[in-house]
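User: Before I run my own analysis I want an independent prediction to cross-check against. Here's the chain; please return only the structure tokens and, at the end, one sentence I can use as a sanity check.
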Amino acid sequence: MVGSTIGQYQIVAKLGAGGMGIVYRARDTQLGRDVAIKVLPAEVAADPDRLARFDREARLLASVNHPNIATIHGVVQSGDAPAIVLELIEGDTLADVVLRGPVPAREAIRLAGQIAEALDAAHARGVIHRDLKPANIKVTPQGQIKVLDFGLAKAFSPSGQDSDAPTVTREATREGVVVGTAAYMSPEQARGQTVDKRTDIWAFGCVVYEMVTGRRAFQGATTSDTIAAILHRDPDWTALPPALPPDVARLLRRCLTKDLAQRLRDIGNVRADLEESAAPTAAPPESVPVGARRSSSWVIWLPISAGILALFAAQQFGLFQRAPPRSQPPALSRFVETLPPGLLLAPAPAFALTQDGRRLAYVAVQDGTRTLYVRDFDETVARPLAGTQDADQPFFSPDGHWIGFFAESKLKKVAVGGGAPHVIAPVSNPRGGTWLPDNTIVYAPSAAAALLRIPAEGGKPEPASTLDRQVNEAAHRWPHALPGGEAIVYAAGPTVSAREWMEAHIVAQSLTGDRRRVIAPHGTFPQFAPTGHLLYSQVGSVYAQAFDPGTFQTTGDPFPILERIAWGGGTNGGSLLWAVSPAGTMAYVAGFERQYEVVLLDRQGKERVVLPAGSYNSPRLSPDGRLIAVTVVGTTDSEVWIHDIARGTTTKLTSGGRETAAEDLRRGTGGQPAARARERHRKDRLAAAEKQLIRPAHPQRLVPTRGRDLQRRARTGVGPHVHLVPARLARGVRHPTTIG
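Assistant: Structure tokens:
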């Protein structure tokens, strides 16, 4: 068989054999990937019972889509025998792991949680495994569990009664027929009785017991002795390690209860108990009063209390007017995610949260390569997902098991636990996606297009929005699903300019009808918070406004909840580094105050620093080249200053800078109107300064991309020029930047 070809698959090596078939490693010659192929042995290919069970395995695997279950790629024919093409899982089986000794309690609980997730997903689809054992469980090099071999599974209805399976299938699972591996059989299975999903819970208990003790829960010299132990004896509970939490020990006892009425009935309960046991006992989170000044460093702040966004808004912005006054502001719990050494956070939107707010995905850059990372908040470190190079703009599936992202001009998805990414659709310069409860994805395929909708499994995309040319819409971006998944919000803008996208408008639209409404005249990157508020970005801040997702109606004035948030720059214009989950967790990256030098470039192409490092904006040069006007950005105000180049003196020209958000609120002006008023005030002051003293040196803004461009313009008589240069740049070739 090795060296032969089955369809598009070239057999490379034999991996193993079992009662249900022979497994080979093969190479997919069309897609260039390695796969596993399971072939029914030729000597039993004519057996109708074996063929039926083999066919059932393929169908069951195809019906269960979960990152902890081996993925089926298809079915091919190998001569007279069928073969299943499976995801190739690298790593050891759990049996190999246990042979090296007991698994430490904390690691065993982590692995057990993944096994429980796989079984929970299978049971939700009406599938039981019936042969769960360490040899059917693989542990990848990244520590991810993959449950294999559903060849003995039984389709069953949600009520637990026998399904309308063919007669031959009933024969394989009827009473009196013992099918399975003896040491992990439940008592009812060993007796040949009808089984339900509780037989998997028993096998799960056997597997976890073996992990933590290094030996089987039930063993004997022969198969008959082993079955006798299952029917009449209890495991040696004294063999459990002292480090195993008592609640996990109690959980094992309930899994391995012989009385069906006393055994745990749902693996979902097991999973929940394991997650609670695995949660680390941490020191109380650092608390800061709401409204305290935030750090300006590049960190991700995560309020980890489910309702913290509502509490934050209630105290700072008076959402709940009837609430009794507090003598002290509520505490804001915060969690700081520190990137591993050598990693830099990618431009916005670089991260996403699961709906329960317990898992974070982010894109980080190392040595010029972008990779997708996943961090569960009950784990200590983030882990990279293999095959996600060039990742951008991640978003989670509703169940949190998959991550959608863009890479290599394609919309892709990857399982949270790892595995090969799946290509869904081609894209070109995309701008965001959202995963709906019906397992479809709405996405922006390019920076200048309407939205599309496509099944998460792939297929033909269909239009999800239509550009409204009457209001000069040239593109729709950053779709976000509203509760229920029957409507979305998104940003609509007039051009592909990053700066103009900060002044786009926000639209709410039904996906089941023609209902469409502009719900915010200025804003972008919309998301919906569980407090009943629309959140969106505008000029470096995040605003909130009361919003009814059912009627598309907004009430009250918008108000800022976060200011000076880092944004994505020109590549992903209109997005900021923040996200909110339906559970109320909010993540954001505070923008740092970049320091610039004001540099004068003369006609000979020589540079001279005329103002030292500071927070500057919009430098202008007087017609005679003697004076420079520049906006100095302060913590609470921004003022125009005049610098005399010859004298080296700097004098403030204007006064009465912008008010803080808190002052705006006290005056009752509201957030967004006040922001516009402040901007008009700043422009009026600058215009007045120009009228009194200077005018722009050139009608058109000069935004060169390279230092040599400035020198070329200077040599041709276009100079002199004044520009800003990041203070940390080394002397030599500079990259001038126009800010403002």
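Sanity check: Residues 671-692 form the longest helix (22 residues).
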